[in-house]
Amino acid sequence: MTLVTGPPQGPATSRIGTYRDPVTAPSSRPPAAPPTVTPRTITPRFDPPSTPALELDEGLPAAVELLRGRRVAVITGAGVSTDSGIPDYRGPDSPPRRPMTYQQFVSDPDFRRTYWARNHVGWRYVHRTQPNAGHRALARLEHAGVVVGVVTQNVDRLHHLAGSRRVIDLHGTYADVVCLDCGHRVTRDTLAQRLEALNPGFVEAVGAVADVEIAPDADAVIESTQGFVVADCDVCGGMLKPEIVYFGESVPRERVDRAFALVDDADALLVAGSSLAVMSGFRFVRHVARSGRPVVVVNRGATRGDALATLRVHAGTSETLTALADALAPA
Ligand SMILES: [Zn+2]
């Protein structure tokens, strides 16, 4: 339900666009959740052993056998986009990174300036990013009637670009921006033109753009953001924010409901490239496992759903999903 790492929150009924200044925020919002990549852990009633992970040569035929003849819902995480050049900041080989929190964004003007300056540079990269074989395999499986849809934790829109039709962007997308004061929406494309006009020459001054490290949410790591001018809402002058669910925010209830409906359309669940570290994704695995339907997890490294998985395949998503599509949706 929530990406927050701090104290528990109320029900996820708020739309992002309804958020207000933290001074007047509802008391159910925690004050300044600590920024950390460590998720809030769930206390299990018991501690079942993890399902052992198989390598691709054994795992693939087992996955094909398990999924054949079933309608499959898919949950994807950052791991499916790493082959498109978008780093997975939770992956086993990733450096520790502190994701932005909602409270930081709304309460600190300097933080916001830095955020938008980096986003202004990073945007160019994410915009150029292309789907990889894993995205294309899932689109192929959907067109063949095997996959019923994709619930993604990624904000990169690569499933849409690959041709998947039924996609729920659980955490929003980088392509939309919303005013926190009046709810007015603009596309990130439109905002890019305004930021460019407000900050002529900024990108060039940052230097070798090609060497800038990009995070999954179009955040580029650059040294100096001094002097960057942030764009405000052109309707009310309010605070603009990417329509992405950040740490400290809840996924809108309506979106959660659509994701559950998608998952309940299926006979099985396939998790691809997610460690399921955040509750917003893990809840679906728990839900499907409790219903007695099979759960297949394809991921490099351990996941929070390992004890609930029917089958675990320890392999990259591009090769595994392609092989699955070749077996279940031959051309
Ligand atoms: Zn506004």
Heterogens: zinc ion
Uncertain spans = 1-45
Question: Rg to the nearest angstrom?
Answer: 20 Å
**3D shape:** elongated
Number of helices: 10
Number of domains: 2
CATH topology of the largest domain: Rossmann fold
Strand order of the largest sheet: 1-12-11-10-2-3-4
Order of helices and strands: EHEHHHEHEEEHHEEEHEHEEH
Classification by helices and strands: alpha/beta
Task: Give the helix proportion (percent range).
Answer: 25-40%
- Report how far the terminal alpha carbons are from each other: 38 Å
Q: CATH top level of the largest domain?
A: Alpha Beta
| Percent of residues in beta strands | 5-15%
Which key phrases capture this entry?
Rossmann fold; 3-stranded antiparallel beta sheet; 331 residues; binds zinc ion; alpha/beta; elongated; disordered N terminus; single chain; 7-stranded parallel beta sheet; 2 domains
Q: What can you see in these coordinates?
A:
The chain is α/β, with parallel strands linked by helices. The chain has two domains: 47-86 and 131-171 and 251-331, TPP-binding domain (Rossmann fold, 3-Layer(aba) Sandwich); 96-128 and 172-244, SIR2/SIRT2 'Small Domain' (2-Layer Sandwich), CATH 3.30.1600. The chain is 32% helix and 15% strand. The protein has ten helices and twelve strands. The strands form three sheets. Strands 1-12-11-10-2-3-4 form a seven-stranded parallel beta sheet, with helices on both faces. Strands 6-5-9 form a three-stranded antiparallel beta sheet. α9 links the parallel β10 (268-272) and β11. The longest helix has 20 residues, at 109-128. Mean pLDDT is 82; it is low at 1-45. Zinc ion (ZN) is lined by residues 179, 181-182, 184, 233, 235-236, 238. This is NAD-dependent protein deacetylase. It is an enzyme of class 2 (transferase). One of its GO terms (cellular component) is cytoplasm. Zn(2+) binds at residues 179, 182, 233, 236.
